[in-house]
Amino acid sequence: MSLHYGDPQIAIGIVFAVLALLLACAFVVIGIQAGTEVGFQRVHEVAYWLRKRWLALLLVIGVLVVGISLFDLPYAGGGAASRTVVKVTGGQFFWSLVPDSVPAGTKVRFNVTSIDVNHGFGLYDPHGHLIGSVQAMPGYHNLLDLTLSEAGVYRIRCLELCGLNHSTMQNTFTVTAH
Ligand SMILES: [Cu+2]
Q: How many Å lie between the centroid of ligand 1 and the Cα of residue 9?
């Protein structure tokens, strides 16, 4: 695997490097101050000052992260009328998809079930990245909503150990260019 510009791995690496540097700085500051006496009243004041702001910061981060990510969750949240339903059936050891092809840009609702045991429906984009996953369970129909904007051959793999030939349980789903 090679890293390239814009790869999320690089962003994660930079964030961790910055956090590690900040932590190292904190240890240095603590080390320098180790010998000096600080009164309890002063420690108490500073700690409470920090604690209120820390809480406020966590609240802001929490609201932002939930607010931004909630709307991108791929699990079905209404709007069935505007979606193309793909019926997905898992079984030992195959995936059946009807239809098995849609035009690029289609809003798809995968309606996933199983005829025997639990399977894991995992959908990989043409670059091999996992873009959605939902359990395939006998007697249940689980829904996965995705907009497939990129043309190419998508791959389905079983993500739940379901028997001897689990590893061979694959199929493809084609997104055609306009
Ligand atoms: Cu399986």
A: 30
